[in-house]
Specification:
alpha/beta; homodimer; 7 helices; five-stranded mixed β-sheet; 41% helix
Amino acid sequence: MSFTEYPSKLLEDAVNEFASLPGIGRKTAFRLVMYLLKRDSGEVERFGESIIRLHREIRYCSVCHNISDTGICAICSDEKRDRSVVCVVENIQDVMAIENTRQYRGVYHVLGGIISPVDGIGPSDLRIDTLEEKVKAGGIKEVIFALSTTMEGDTTNFYLFRRLGRYNILLTTLARGVAVGDELEYTDELTLGRAINNRNPYHQ
Amino acid sequence: MSFTEYPSKLLEDAVNEFASLPGIGRKTAFRLVMYLLKRDSGEVERFGESIIRLHREIRYCSVCHNISDTGICAICSDEKRDRSVVCVVENIQDVMAIENTRQYRGVYHVLGGIISPVDGIGPSDLRIDTLEEKVKAGGIKEVIFALSTTMEGDTTNFYLFRRLGRYNILLTTLARGVAVGDELEYTDELTLGRAINNRNPYHQ
């Protein structure tokens, strides 16, 4: 057969790109591409460009490592936030989850992951040094460990406790309102809000 | 609250674009964007560019209106295909579905839709004139109506029969192996292959 699966290389390329996304199979990818073909070319170019710009222009806050369009993110540059309380989270999804509870008025520190020997992620792969530097520099009264209640989260909590325990600050964890084994970003806002209000001193 | 839902406008734009696709909600869109952020920037740029190029550079075959990277598609320019048999389909998904059966050696004519008064699509919105011109020009022995077995497909079949019935050619439809109410592009290859082999003369 001279017929290849797709009548056009451009079409095939676009389908392959969509199919490379998690949870999107070839059939869905094809339907998405066919849908894009039917849209206005202006809309489709805007789509493509938003993806390209995302990677080219996105920046991370130099203070908390949260995603940001500017050098310092909106939370860190907000005068009303309490900079003496730092909430340590795994990623920016978790920042957004906690912000959505509207219960927290401190600032954040985004680790960029959690310690996971299975995935080959050790303490040096995370932004723990900059966290310790911040604490060492003074002005911080409390560090909240707001990591997922998984084995990896517990390991990271323990490691952070060892690193930060020597400084004269309060170390707390989220209240165990968050069900064990749950990913933080999927926890409902009520539970997560209660958990951050009922946070407890960290102990081994 | 000074906090907007997303910490970055670039992020929000990209999420909005993904969420505009059919079957992708805001939560999924956000996860796809976060996944893209973790990938190599080269890969992500390729993704964005494949979407932009798709719309800018894609062409349609001047003979059958199938999607194509060249002026005449691979099927129409294939010397081994029988140009005296034309299979009329709704869209390019249906061309691909029939090609995948590997049962058909004729050529196609892509209507670009089917008559659907509910959606405001009439005969003049479809590529029916060019089909009639092809038939009038001669050399075509048979036109196969391979439309979905829905109300709209039946209406379109009837309309095509009225337009093409005056010419001395065989008009056929797919065998009723395709279940009534089914969309053509989701029919399994075995059924669709049998249906195209057992096609019957069209009668009102």
